[in-house]
């Protein structure tokens, strides 16, 4: 009887130690995910041929945490819900959905997009002759999938303060700032630093 109690206490102690270790590991993982970086998966064809559907990307969150402005050509992850104020609660929700999406494709978010930064605050962008013009200069964009895009807009777009203009590299198959407008810097939630897929 005494032995059974001792064994029971040992089991409870062992389970408690495991639970404690798991909780600490999860807390560290969440902090890293919120403030340092994450791995995410590409869904869709909007960044071909740079990235493909199913590619895994390493994303730095450091610029988002510090509120830094990205630079031309940076590939970023954005929250496409540009008409609402983004808060820290959204960052926490991102962590949960990112972990769930590893186990189930149905848990993937459809408002987190991977795009390339084309315009910064104060820039004037024009879309003519199948190309992007920034501040009167046609951009050389060797990363785009096709030599010409099927998009024209007669009125120039001026990027407001605190916003960026982003586009997919597969211009003819991308939802981006041409349709949702300039993206607030708060909605730039990460900067792609590495592609894990080969």
UniProtKB/TrEMBL annotation:
Q: Subcellular localization, per the record?
A: Cell membrane; Membrane
Q: Per its record, what are the GO molecular function terms?
A: serine-type endopeptidase activity; signal peptidase activity
Domain Peptidase S26 positions: 17-193
Active-site residues annotated for this sequence: 46, 115
Recorded GO cellular component terms are: plasma membrane
Report the EC code(s) recorded for this entry: 3.4.21.89
Keyword Transmembrane helix listed: yes
Q: What is this protein called?
A: Signal peptidase I
Q: Which organism is it from?
A: Veillonella criceti
What lineage does the source organism belong to?
Bacteria, Bacillati, Bacillota, Negativicutes, Veillonellales
Gene assigned in the entry: sipP
């Amino acid at each position: 009887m005494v032995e059974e109690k001792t064994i029971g206490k040992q089991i409870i102690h062992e389970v408690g130690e495991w639970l404690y270790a798991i909780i600490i590991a999860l807390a560290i993982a969440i902090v890293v995910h919120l403030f340092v970086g994450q791995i995410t998966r590409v869904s869709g064809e909007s960044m071909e041929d740079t990235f493909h559907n199913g590619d895994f990307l390493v994303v730095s969150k450091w610029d988002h945490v510090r509120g830094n402005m990205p630079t031309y050509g940076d590939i970023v992850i954005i929250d496409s819900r540009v008409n609402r104020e983004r808060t820290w609660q959204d960052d926490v929700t991102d962590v949960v959905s990112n972990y769930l999406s590893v186990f189930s494709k149905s848990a993937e978010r459809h408002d987190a997009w991977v795009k390339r930064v084309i315009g910064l605050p104060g820039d004037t962008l024009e879309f003519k002759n199948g190309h992007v013009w920034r501040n009167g200069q046609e951009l050389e964009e060797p990363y785009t999938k096709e030599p010409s895009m099927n998009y024209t807009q007669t009125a120039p777009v001026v990027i407001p303060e605190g916003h960026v203009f982003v586009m997919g590299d597969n211009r003819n198959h991308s939802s981006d700032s041409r349709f949702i407008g300039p993206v607030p810097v708060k909605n730039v939630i990460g900067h792609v630093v590495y592609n894990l897929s080969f």
